[in-house]
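Quality-control log, excerpt.
Job 1 of 2 completed; input and output follow.
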Amino acid sequence: MGICKDKGLLTAATTLHLHAEERLGTEIAERHPPRTTEAAQRFVHESGVRQVELEIQNEDLRQAQMKLELSQNRYAELYDFAPVGYFTFDTHGVIQEANLTGAQLLGIDRRLLANTPFTTFIADADGRDIFSNHLVLVLQRQVMLRCEIRLTGNDGTVINGQLQSVAVTIENKDAYILTSIIDTTVRKQLEEKLQKARDDLESIVHERTRELTSANAQLTQEIEERKSTEELLQIAYAEINRLKDRLQAENVYLQTEVDQRYNFGEIVGQSTALSRVFAQVKQVAPMNATVLLLGETGTGKGVVARAIHSSSARKGRAFITVNCTTLPATLAESELFGREKGAFTGSDARQIGRFELADGGTIFLDEIGELSLELQCKLLRIIQDGEFERLGSPRTIKTDVRIIAATNRNVEEQIRNGKFREDLFYRLNVFPITMPPLRQRKEDIPLLINHFVAKFNKKIGKKIESVPLDILNTLQEYHWPGNVRELESVIERAVIISQGTSLQVLDRFDTFRTREDLAEQEIKTLVEVEHDHILQVLQKTCWRVEGENGAARFLGLNSSTLRARMRKYKIVRQ
């Protein structure tokens, strides 16, 4: 396009120059010689003006010639050093012109390509036929067409070439074909390698599939044989047990689940005390009532909370557990109710609280007696109104959450000591369930041992199949101050140290406390409770013993009796 424009500019300037000279000559010829001095001066002036015009036109012509030369040079550079080989053929496929890239592609000097039939460089007869048909179609359709042929370079190298051709017809002259050839050899090689890699991969996959199928069939056969062998062994063991009374243990056969008669979700047992808990769970689970779980540590309050959720209409939604004991005092509010970005120093992002996460589901507040009075107030508002605000946000958030709370503390005593809100207790105590300690459900201990042995066999990779009778009796007689959690810990350690298929707990016998030891411990605990209670009342009354507002009156003791207790417990005002 640039060359055509420059040629047009040059032609226009040349025409203008010739027209000006003709006009000047004509005017001079037509005019009569000046007869007066004034006419002569006017003639000279007009001649000078026309001379200037001719010089300007000559300068425009020189500029146009320079632009044309620059454009021709630029076109020559672009043509010669283009990354694609360019060829011009006549209608018979004879090379008329080629750029440097095209000559380098064929490995022949550019000057030797002129007037050479292009079919000379085509590697095979099929390619020559394709090229001839390609030329015919390009001339007939007058559109750009493509084809692929194999070429032979001057050094015998085979080149895969992609041709892209178009017919060009010059006015009053024959038609020509500006074909571009792209070397696709590397692409062809890569495609061939890729196809070979695919074929190899398919072959490997086929072979590996055959091997796996064979191995799977063999493994299935081995499993069936092992099952048959295990059945025979079980029959043999049963026969031995009937004929000989050699075992001192009750067999604990491995099973993935405990019998449903003795299992409510994850709660294992069949005792009367636990059956009452099962009945209460079945009663309250379908409802949205708030539940308060009471009982000692390790009695399974968390398991009961999950069983209530799993048996409710909310079982498909979230079950969020919050251990109030582990909540940091400074972050408790943001953990429960969430916070906005920048609510306090260090809060560089918005946080969703536990109540917001539990929306539509259930939230289990374990050890709720550890909550501060301020958080107890906000919890009371959620129970009453179902709404709260994130820390640092004035916007009220609505939530639909079922609350299950649990504590191992004496809530009524906490209320008397001012550590728990009475109105919150009434809201939580809608449906209380008291979890029985393990010492009150000893008949469940064999089932629990069965459950935990199966659990830790699978976890640790052991094969404990029996529990000696003396060990079973010892475990049933123990008082279990840590309840089910302590029993689980004992069984896990026993499975770890046991050799063979019989459960051993020898390393635990010396740590078991007798009932007498436990009674002594309970006495010490009562003494400590009384000591702490007296100390707290004295602190509230500012260490005033007597009088209407004295500690003795609040404790229901005589002032002399209170002083005697203070001396006994060594309670002294600091």
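Job 2 of 2 completed; input and output follow.
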Amino acid sequence: MKSLRSMSALVLFFLIILAAGCSRDPNVKKQKYLDSGKKYLQAEKYQEAVIQFSNAIQTDPNFAEGHYQLAQAYIKMGYWKSAFTELSRVIDLQPDNVKAQVEVGNLLLAARQIDEARKHSDIALQKDSQDPEAIGLAANIQAADHNLPAAIEQIQKAIQLSPNRAEFYTNLALFQTKSDQLPAAEASLKKAIEVDPKSARNYVNLASFYQQRQNVAAAEQTFQTAIQADPKNLQARVAFARFYLAQGKRPEAENVVLDGKRALGNDPNGYRLAADFYLGVGDTDKALDEYAALYQQHPKNLEVKKSYIDLLLQKGRIDEAKRLTDEILKSNSKDVMANLFAADLQIRSGDYSGAIARLGDVTKNEPDNARAHYFLGLAFDRSGNADQAEKEWREAARLRPDMAIAQEALAKLAIRTGNVELLASSAEQLIKLQPAAPNGYLFRAGAESSHQQQDKAEADIATAIRLAPQSASGYLGLAKLRLSQRKFADALTNFQLALDRDPQSAEALSGLAQAYVSQKQPANAIAAVNAQITKYPSVGGFYYTLGALQVQTRDLAAASASFQKAIELDSGNFPALFQLGRLDMAQGDLDKAAQQWRAWLDKDPRNPNPAWLLGRLEDSRNNWEKAQDYYQKALQARPDFPPAANDLAYSMLVHGGNSDVALSLAQTARRGLPDSPNSADTLALAYIQKKVYGSAIDLLQDAIKKSPPNATFEYHLGLAYQQGGNATEAKKHLTRALSVDPKFAQAADAKKVLQEL
């Protein structure tokens, strides 16, 4: 008995050792991961499949099948770059792998890299000239090269080799349609259905063919058959709903969607169908109601929750959006979409520095996330960094050429910075993306007006008004054009029409006020603004417009109160903060101005403007060391900020700082402010100290041409001539400096140099 127990223990021991050995065998281990991944792939659990396939190739980096299956998972998820990388690795490991060659070719063809796709097609056909998929790829390449007869010949060969592949008949139909062989194309689409009668996609292709031929009855019948063939097919119902929308039959489209929602039951894509439909047709109220109900029914569905947050943000329901966003981040602080929502919330609350830091992390981890770049551009723009904003928006547009909001942001930035070329290019892109929307035409009109192409601008504005007669934007564009043409009565009329359509438009009210002021009617301008404030007292922009008018009429106390109210209603109203500080300085209350701008700096330390303004304020008090500290702080926030670079360079040159550093700063300022007389003067002073007198003289002559009589510029030009050995010109400009302003800051120095001469 004892020996039997001993034998059993020994057997068990060897089994354990054997199992342990198997678990350590990399071939067994990678195969287990591969098999598990395939199960997940079949169950459409693609993320889980990716994890298992990744585990397999970590176990054996040269495991070609693991790389191939990982590519299949990425293709299902739409991660084309990752799929391409994995398939390329398969080809490196197995150059004779025809399937991988064909799939890489298909990816390249989809990216319009036709010549590269052809290389892989040729290799695949060299390896197996009778492979139907390789022949199908060759057919598609011929079609991309507009050689339709060859494409038809090739796909027919593929069909002969594999007559039960429905997608080959679909491709044949596409080529025949492009060749205007319509009866043959219809027959091919019907053959695809015959080969695979349970596939809804085949019916949808035939229905779309009928729709394009304006055979509405046949299209409708075929869409219905598609749903009967596969009642749970989401794409068939979406296509059918779009068909009805194209016919102007929204109720019928809505019925298709609601019926699909019932039929698909607990399928997440199904129960979101109605919500996404309402969102697609612009009915955000119904979409929000749907998502609110879905969130209650499916609180664990993260995609539903995120879509709900997105709509809450669109509707301005900030507190609810923040609560739900915080819930997601609490469970997963790295969730990308939740971080984008959080950044959006930070931007709305004026926390631009926090948004920039958060979005910087997102773009570092996901450099191809266009939406993250868009929001990062928005945060930079609000914090006063227009150059960085443009860079981020351009990147968003590059990553997502169909991202209209990025193009619109670039266009608005171009208007503010006077970049007519950027405005024109963004406008053209918007028109391509949204030909039925007014904004692209209005932006293009702005570019045309800048080039004095008034007739073209008029035509584009008329198009915008025709497309959206109830929108304020078209009338606003026409009003601005009339204002630039000094047709003030027409401008007033159109600004009022814009305001009638959007009574809370600060831009329309500001334009209306400007039109009155242009006619020397400031009292009417103030009355119009006050009337609108009475109706809508919570619009901060209205108070800013009122304050600007009160400054013009010298009612400075009232202007201060208006700017203060604008800030109370919108803490991120930086123009109001700027104007309020300037008013305080103008009235001699430097401490109050400093207090305003320090609060602004504390709130948004990444914005260089408040630190720069504080530096100028300290300069006005002759606290040059403190001023330099603020200028440096502004440059820490934005190293290429031209105003701070200019003022710091000037201060260093005047007060004996490092001349090399000062020269570098002055050059930075000049690059950023190429038309500024002040930047020319600062760089000229740096050149004088470096004894580069010719360049200094050129810059100072340019500065004097572009500015009213300026004693400092004349003095510096006199110095350049004096130190360069031209006493006659030196005397002329030093004398002129003293005649322009006998008491300017360097008057004593000018007199001393004159005496020496």
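Post-run check on job 2. Residues 642-757 form a domain with the Serine Threonine Protein Phosphatase 5, Tetratricopeptide repeat fold (CATH 1.25.40.10).
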